[in-house]
Automatic annotation (TrEMBL):
Cofactor note: Binds 1 Mg(2+) ion per subunit. The magnesium is bound as Mg-PRPP.
Molecular function GO labels: GTP binding; magnesium ion binding; uracil phosphoribosyltransferase activity
Reactions mediated catalytically: UMP + diphosphate = 5-phospho-alpha-D-ribose 1-diphosphate + uracil
Protein name: Uracil phosphoribosyltransferase
Upper taxonomic lineage: Bacteria, Bacillati, Actinomycetota, Coriobacteriia, Eggerthellales
Gene: upp
Any single biological process term in GO: UMP salvage
Length: 216
């Protein structure tokens, strides 16, 4: 049984042909930091489109040049984007293009190189985070340690409606996140084969933070 079937309704694979095309360029070791950043921004926009598919609509009266009619508009939902630093920062701009009124909370976390455990080093949320629907963004979901810690942090802040949007996931990470929280939904462009001994996603795309910021 696939993860999507096992956790029915809680895993979305965003596999539009344009997404698959862009993801393949993103994976390529020869893709420059500049192009990598552009692709992460574009893929975040596509994922934001899917993540907001269930936003409630309301009827509004609109006068066209010909007549007045009833149309639909998004009902003032309060949203927040929460990137897991550093790599998650690369997805913020694309999400904000789609949701310009969303607020942004920052959660700083790095994975210890030997234990692979996440360490939190920064947190700054909008004051009204508990009243917002939150989309946590991070390009990579490997062991799931960082995302699970981010989700627990946001639950402790009182957040109810929570989604996690990643670009590439290991099956182990998807399972860890979904088992750690009964309600969170996960969106990913791909679920890869697994992880290597250093807990890097295989085939993956390498270290997303280093590729976005050119630090290696
Ligand atoms: O699922 P996990 O096993 O926790 O791994 C995924 C995490 O690792 C990466 O961050 P990293 O620690 O490299 O920090 P960075 O963004 O500063 O590069 C990635 O951006 C995720 O946050
Ligand atoms: O493959 C991986 C795993 C964790 N973090 C990354 O940036 N890439
Ligand atoms: Mg990194």
């Amino acid at each position: 049984m696939s993860l999507s079937e096992e956790f029915a309704g809680r895993v979305t694979i965003v596999d539009h042909p344009m997404v698959q095309h862009k993801l393949s360029i993103l994976r390529d070791v020869n893709t420059s930091s500049k192009q990598f950043r552009e692709l992460v921004r574009e893929l975040a926009l596509f994922e934001g489109y899917e993540a907001t598919r269930d936003l409630p609509l309301e009827d509004v009266e609109v006068t066209t040049p010909l007549m007045t009619t009833t149309c639909k508009m998004v009902r003032g939902k309060k949203l927040a984007i929460v990137p897991i630093l550093r790599a998650g920062l690369g997805m913020v701009e694309g999400m904000l293009e789609l949701m310009p009124a969303a607020k942004v909370g920052h959660l700083g976390m790095y994975r210890d190189e030997s234990t692979h455990e996440p360490h939190e080093y920064y947190a700054k949320m909008p004051e009204d985070i508990a009243a917002r629907d939150v989309i946590v963004v991070d390009p990579m979901l490997a062991t799931g340690g960082s995302a699970t810690a981010a989700i627990s942090y946001l639950r402790a802040c009182g957040v109810r409606n929570l989604k996690l949007a990643v670009l590439v996931a290991a099956p182990e990470g998807v399972r860890a996140v979904l088992e750690s929280d009964p309600d969170v939904q996960v969106l990913t462009c791909a679920i890869d084969e697994g992880m290597n001994e250093a807990c890097y996603i295989m085939p993956g795309l390498g270290d997303a933070g280093d590729r976005i910021f050119g630090t290696k």
